# Entry
Amino acid sequence: MSRFWEDLTFRGLVHQVTDASLEEKLEGERITLYAGFDPTADSLHVGHLLGVLTLRRFQQAGHRPIALAGGGTGMVGDPGGRSEERNLLSRDELEHNLASIRGQLSRFLDFDQKSEGGSALLLDNGQWLWELGLLEFLRDTAKHFTVNQMIAKESVRSRLEGREQGISFTEFSYMLLQAQDFLHLHDNYGCRLQIGGSDQWGNITAGVDLIRRKRAVEVWGLTTPLVLKADGTKFGKSASGTVWLDARRTSPYALYQFMLQSEDSVVGRYLRYFTWLEREEIVALDQATADTPGLRRAQRALASEVVAVVHGRDAAAAAESASRALFGGDLRALDEPALKEVLAEAPSSCHPYSRLQGEGWDLLQALVSAGLCGSLGEGRRAVAQGGVAINGARVDRTDRSIREDDLLWGRYVALRKGKHSWHLLQFGG
# Structure
């Protein structure tokens, strides 16, 4: 087994392969491969991350990756993994999304010929699909597929079984367009391998079959596993919505927290999928999760490595520092943007500066006002038990008041009850 294939296997990245000979080809030849990304938004999200990083692994192993942005297929919508029809985007919306995604992909793939296998390519299938005539497509591509074959594919069959929704002919034709992509990339760029998530297996094998029938040559398909959370739900969603790779939509800190919250049962897989940690390090973190799960060493390593891959080491260090400050450190160490970011999900309330003058604002009254305690008595017990903090520092006196010297950046005071219940007091006027 080649070292590269062994690493793919160790990381669980080989879910299905159309032919076992692919391992040998990857060892002895430089292969051009592709993965597609439909531009349904102006940013990729963490659900795309496995595909992008797998392309990167292939490039680092000396192969040439093509990142295919679906400016054409994005007008149709892939039925795979969907229980209902997608909303169709306008051409202007697609162009905007494509421009944004191109910039993001350049953070992961080398498009400047610095890699051993040569520079990656970034292509838009709208360049050829927009010009493809209907009759030409039906005659030269669609005739190679039977309806029987197409409805047997899982992505189509699951939709046909849904009596209320079904599937439109538009989405039904998606696999043929994807097969056309593979053929075009094979003819014009020598592409011989398509990779994608396991929900793409039907679309990938359609392309392999089309090239075999029309060109009588061997090409391959490889799928990676679907990335799911421990409860089986789709990876890439948090309580506040989709986790994006664009820092303007999901901050590095929010991405760090999303990864940090990974369950013990899946963190080992995520370390393999999304990081470049060596096998020995990953195995050691697996053991740490089994032996001392409360320390969450694997989760912290995962969060730091993923943020570094997506946003850089400096962003990872800042996110890690902010996380330490929030969970047991001193919030005074954070600058104002970081403070607002780490407490962005916490409730907040506004109060006049006058409350802090003189003897200050009684802490127990502030806890009740903030909704952290239901009564003064509850607040008194929480303080006595060591469960209340001001700006991250534990309070040990029930007669404590909040004063002007408690203000962070001249206007904030962060109250915490227990480990996770925060409230941000903002003062002004």
